[in-house]
Amino acid sequence: LIFITERMGKVMKVFMVGGTGLLGSEAARELIRRGHEVSSIALPPLPEGEVLPPEMTIDFANYMELSDDELKGYLEGMDGLVFAAGVDERMEGPPPIYDLFEKYNITPLKRLLRIAKESGVKHAVICGSYFSYFDRAWPKMELYKHHPYIRSRVDQANMALSFADDNFDVAVLELPYIFGTQPGRKPVWVFLVEQIRNMKKRTMYPKGGTTMVTVKQVAETIAGALEKNKGGHNIPVGYYNLEWIQLISIIHRFMGTPEKKIVTIPTFLFKLGLRNTIKKQKQENLEPGLNMKYFPKLMTSKAFIDKKWIEALGVAPDDIDGAIGESVLLSLEILDGKTKTVDMKGE
Full-prediction pTM beyond 0.90? Predict the structure, then answer.
């Protein structure tokens, strides 16, 4: 774990892009708890019911629309930069969809890092994707070649790390499945809860599994990377490794159906089930971030990550069952029309 150094005790001034989001707001709380100063810029609106840390200075604006001089005004005098914004793999649009990911995740971040470095910022933390880690770990799957979103995240990481030198530390956090909620913001898990609820008698799901963390652990990872990362590094983020059947069992419990049977379906049936999705995307001239033709192999793999990487940053164990439960219960409230939320597709 060669990225570790010790800067403990130094109070930092941190500028965050995306400070009203699930990850950004929790990271701000953690940084402030550690004695750091946090200011942020984010897109409106503030989710209903969310109470941001009163110590955080927040401006509502689109950082992509600000001039270089305006961004310098935010960044000068800052020690750290946190990028907790952008769009994720659920985005789809006319091909080439890569251009959309480049527009929101790569091009503006490149300008932001350049201005940050020119302004004297010393430490940057980028919220990326764990797909970048698996692109390195599973070369035979050719994830970079087949999936535009994964290609964009690898390109984003390589671009960000190119800024690192002896005076500018860059950590790209390769974030996995994240559980936990924010008042007023729609969890990414609504689709999964709805899918499971629509399977009345039994839940049919493929083999495989994933690593996951709580939102609190992401906040600790961001703070730890700001405080300890030295140089330029991709940092794989994972703590709890669960097979899909284990995750579904937890979801069933919080949905009030603990006895519901889970059937692990063969991969070929999973592929067949995606045919209509692929057909519909072609008819509507939409390209997804993850290529459905190659997605089954990715989905049925065990996407596990050793917790040693983030333990080295000081991340502690947390209640993953409780975080999953919070996500499930809020998803059910949204599906039942009991609460209004804003979407979480982008910050």
Answer: yes
